[in-house]
Each structure stands twice: as C-alpha cells, then as structure tokens.
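Final report, closing paragraph on structural work. Over the funding period we assembled a curated collection of sequence-structure pairs, and we close with a single example.
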Amino acid sequence: MTDFNFFSTFWMIFSFSFLVALTGSMAPGPLFTYTIIKSVQAKKRGYLMGLWIIIGHALLEMVIIIFLLLGFSFVLQNIIVVRSIGIVGGLILISFGASIIRDVYRGSVSTSFLDSAQSSEEKSTIPKQKGIRNPVIGGIVVSMANPYWWVWWATIGFAFILQFDISFRQWPKLIAFFLGHEAGDLIWYLFVSTLAFLGLRHLNKKVYYGILILCGIFMILFGIYMGVSPFFKGG
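Its predicted structure, as stored:
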C-alpha cells in the first residue's frame, strides 16, 4: 500500500507538472524563436537543438527551484527586481534580434544547408558570430532574459511547490515535479526544432532570410515589451 501511494503520488505530480509546463512552453516567446533560428542554421542534427536548448533551460530552472525552496521567492516578487530583469533581459533580446537582422543584411548568414550544391562555395562565408552560438548557453541566457519566466516561477511555479508540499525532505515529490516540468518543455521544443530543421531547410534563400528578419523583429519587439511592461504594474 505504501509503495502504491508512493508511485501514485509521484505520477500525479509528474503529470500535473508535465501538463502545466507543456501548456506554458507552447506559448510563443523568445526561447521558441531562438529554437527555430538555431535549428534551421544547424548544418546537421538541427532536430536536436531543442534538446540542447532545454538542457540549458533545465539547468537554470534547477537553480531557481533550489532558491525557491530555500525561501528566496520574495526576491522574485519584488517590483524593483522584476523591472531590473525586464530592462536587462529586454536589452539582451533586442541585441540578439538586431544581430540577426544585421547579419542578414550583411549577407553573413550561411545558407549552405538550403542547397547542398552551394556548400563548398559558401564554406568561407560562414559567420563567426551567430548570436548565442552554444545552444546550451543560449537556453540559459535567453531564459534569463525573459522577466516573465522569473515571474512565472515566483507565482505559478512556487504555488505548485506549496500546493504539493514539495521540499528537499520530500525528495521524490521534488524529482517528480522537476522531471515532469522539464519533460513538458523537452517534448514541445524537440517537436519545434525537428519541424524547423526538416521543414524550413527546403525554403529558398529569400524566404529563409525573410523568416530570419521576422524572427529578429519579433525578438526586438518582445524585448521592448518586456523592458517597458513591468513599469505599468503596481509596486
């Protein structure tokens, strides 16, 4: 009976955490756009970009869960902290979006994957800078740049922890919560990266450039929104 209760509680927390994370991750945001960009720019195995990006994302979430359990949730609920994160994060996303558009206009974006016949011709034009190059680090930086990610953990995430009595002492619940949450993120972003890698790679160069510019504009607008919107909320 004890074993049955253990596994039923484990899978209940895992399932709820999975569904909440999956629902949240499906909403378009900077991490979604970053995943598409990195997937289509990859020469090979771009379908795995979602995995590497979520590994970085998960490492950051592991840290924030630990801090929440140690009692630091009040820090993330402070309006000054939220506004500071919004400004810094917004500037990072604006910079990233601008760098994408700049590289497109400079012609420094490699398109060798769009036409294998041109691969040898374009090897020398592969840019040294493609935004945040390492997808694991990118998963961390882009997540940190989103103030609403911090707010989500300070509110919904922390409420989930309290509701299910998750703590270091209740480590099976903690593991179920963490694994469920990351599984929800992983499944969606693997789907996105696979779709982007296998589908968008068959576009012609102009359409590909157009998509990159739209992604860059989205990142800039999202960065502006994140930097400004916290100031319209009460302290």
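Confidence is low (pLDDT under 50) at residues 116-130. The chain has one domain: 30-229. We thank the funder for supporting this effort.
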